């Protein structure tokens, strides 16, 4: 009996070993998933200039609770009436974060333009101090707190992409700093994903979710995490179901006097997500029967003729800079790279260049101008 047991045990071990060997061969035979990449413009080399650079004072890392009032406090469901006292409180409390968003983008842009080593050292010092302090990882106890976290992540990861993927390889000499910073961005993105429920009811899916998806998409490329990329793509597909046949977003129309502004605000991260999808072989603009193009056309028509949004909502529109030269049309850069824009739209975009936005990662014209 013992001999029989021993024989069975030997045969069992041999079978397990054979299965293991087979699985190893299969693993070797299967190609690894392609690394996630940004659009080609991010690979551009660093420029050269004799322009002097002085590193600005770094804002103190924000390590506290993300608890900020809404600037629309008390304005009802439409959330369209500015509360000046709440807005002032919000700006004061979030100033270190806002200064970090804007400052790091300016520093990275300056480095990419000039190639000044001092600018790169400055950027690494800012990122390094905030990552070492574990900034932006505190609890969020308000909707605005959650919003600030994903906006700041969009800025931080968006700017970092320029350094990470430039063909000049500016980060090659700083592997430890790079690992620390990217680990920190990864910790932030994990919180963002938990704070914005992809299964939220459709009436909740609005511009905030689109900005969260862009912050997650940008960070997915930084960290090469396919799960994050897919999460952002699913939010985009949820958006594609929201756009009606005329190109309106119901959940932005309810903003009454700011409906047009929020259509424009919503399409900004969506155009970036579409561009990053294209760079990785995912055709997002086709979702929803061309939802992105419908939204883009309606938004541009509304900017040219705000009356159509007034007729739709019953409220005169507050344009919030949309009537100024350059306005907030930075999304035309990724949009026209992802889809074929008409000659008129291309001319409009070219007349506004350079188009920049800190929450997209700085100078978008530099990324998309060679289309």
**Average of pLDDT:** 92
CATH homologous superfamily annotation of the domain at 31-50 and 154-368 = Chondroitin AC/alginate lyase
Number of helices: 15
Q: Which percent range describes the beta-strand content?
A: under 5%
The CATH topology of the domain at 31-50 and 154-368 comes to Glycosyltransferase
Q: Sheet with the most strands? A: 2 strands, antiparallel
Strand ordering within the main sheet = 1-2
Which architecture of the domain at 31-50 and 154-368 does the CATH hierarchy give at level 2?
Alpha/alpha barrel
CATH class annotation of the domain at 31-50 and 154-368: Mainly Alpha
The number of E-state strands comes to 2
Give the termini distance in whole angstroms: 77 Å
Helix content: 55-70%
* Stretches with pLDDT under 50, minimum 5 residues: 1-31
- Please give the oligomerization state of what you see: single chain
Work out the radius of gyration: 24 Å
**Element-level helix/strand string:** HHHHHHHHHHHHHHEEH
- Taken from the alpha-carbon principal axes, the silhouette is globular
Q: What structural class should be given to the helix and strand makeup?
A: mainly alpha
